[in-house]
Target: Peptidoglycan D,D-transpeptidase FtsI
Amino acid sequence: MIRKPAAPKKQAKKNQQPTVISWRFAFVIVSLLAVFSALIIRAAYLQVLEPEMLLEQGDMRSLRVKADAAMRGMILDRNGEELAVSVPVKSIWADPQLVLRNRHKIDERRWHALADMLQISPQQLSDKIGADDSKRFVYLQRQASPATVDYIKQLKIPGIAFQQESRRYYPAGEVTAHILGFTNVDDQGMEGIERQFNDVLTGKPALKTIRKDAKGREVEVLSQTDGQASNNIQLSIDQRIQAVAYRELKKAVMQFGATSGSVVVVDVHNGEVLALANAPSYNPNNRKNADSNRYRNRAITDTFEPGSTIKPLPVLAALENGTATMNTVISTGYGPVRIGGRLVRDVNGYGDLDLTGIMRKSSNIGVTRLALGMPTDKFLDMYYKMGVGSETGLGLTGETSGVLREQRRWGEHALATVSFGYSFTVNAVQLARIYATIANGGVAYPLSIFKTTKKPQGERVISEQHADNMVAMLEAVVGPGGSAKKAAVPGYRVGGKTGTAKKAGIRGYSDDYIGSFAGVAPISDPRIAVVVIINEPSGDYYYGGEVAAPVFSAVSGAAMQLLNIAPDANDSRISKISEVPNAG
Model:
């Protein structure tokens, strides 16, 4: 029996089914189908159910909003002279991601040169940029000088770029600092007019929405919004008079060792402020070493007891209420008198004085007699009508109104102190408004720091006759026998009143004084009222007639010349006093 040979093992393996491979193939196919199905479902979800998210992501990568910066408006004086302007500058910034990626390529000499121009050390420059390569923006220097920008551009350091900005510049510097204030590095007003009228000066930039491609090229403009131009502001200040006022005030503060001082010049015909200066001041273009205490506009914020500069008011009150006339003679005696249990005294014994004599000699006893010779409410009403205890209408931030406290019952000595300028407070602009009202024939105008195109509505608070009589009495104060000879102005007739008041402290009155002078010019046809305050003069000279009157003389003389007011010293017209006074 012959056996058939068995098939080779290899052949047997070929005849077997590849079960494992088929399962693997099926698994791959199923997996791929599942993945593709998930992608299709996800794509359908994103594009059909929530397409906004994709659009938002796309817009984040391609949409940009460009703003055409609006330059800050200018501040001008009454004659159109520029007091504050914005100049284009560039800020230097870095892209930390680009800088760090290319740091190994940057020559160390260029890196050190960049640090030198930024006035920092190379290590400080590295610290400023940091080690985080996800950051894309950091300022290196704001509002850099053109020379700095040009030099750094030539270094050609990757990741260092420049941004167009504007910087505020004040041509008059410290002369107008307290009026204008200043802006911060982002061009936002921080003090003075700059802060108070920031919205008016700023304007709104024009906006343009564009689409960019992957290379940063502009491919489409989607929308445009027109901007709003910034507005200029024109002040009532005359820069020429302002410069003289500041120069003379600064000189007096230094000469007499005073802690501070203020000068206010007002146009009596409409209440416009022609000059408002304070010393010490600061340079708004460079405030690195400026004490913040110097930022205060003392002419509107600081109040004081006015002393003898207020004596026209009790005299006017007596005239208005008919308790005295220009012929009235008041016995002031030759020594102190006891009023309400306390002494009131004059510098010297003057005997009998008429109203002009009381003003000329600045008699405390004289004005006390006048104050006590009329009803209390009538006496105090004159102070209120002339603006004591109320704002002037100037409208500047920080203006104080002073204090004249109401009392249920006024004692005689309390009324006496009010008559010669104590027991209440005013500021420099309030005092200037009082004298402007007197000089304007008794019509009061609100003060304005802006140039007016239309004369404001005035209010008559005293009769023209009595106001004119007071102007003539003020001239007598500056004339022979008066207390303010140093206020005289060559070629012009001027008048005013000195003031010397002790400063009140925590424990009563101290040994510090405020020397002041308030006056009007020219007498023949008053145009300006000028107030000068010298705070805490040191040394032997502290009387208003010594420290403040010379400043009035210089400022009012220059102002009248700048305003083209003809000299009136030889004016032959009869004095405006309607009744001939007795010799005092």
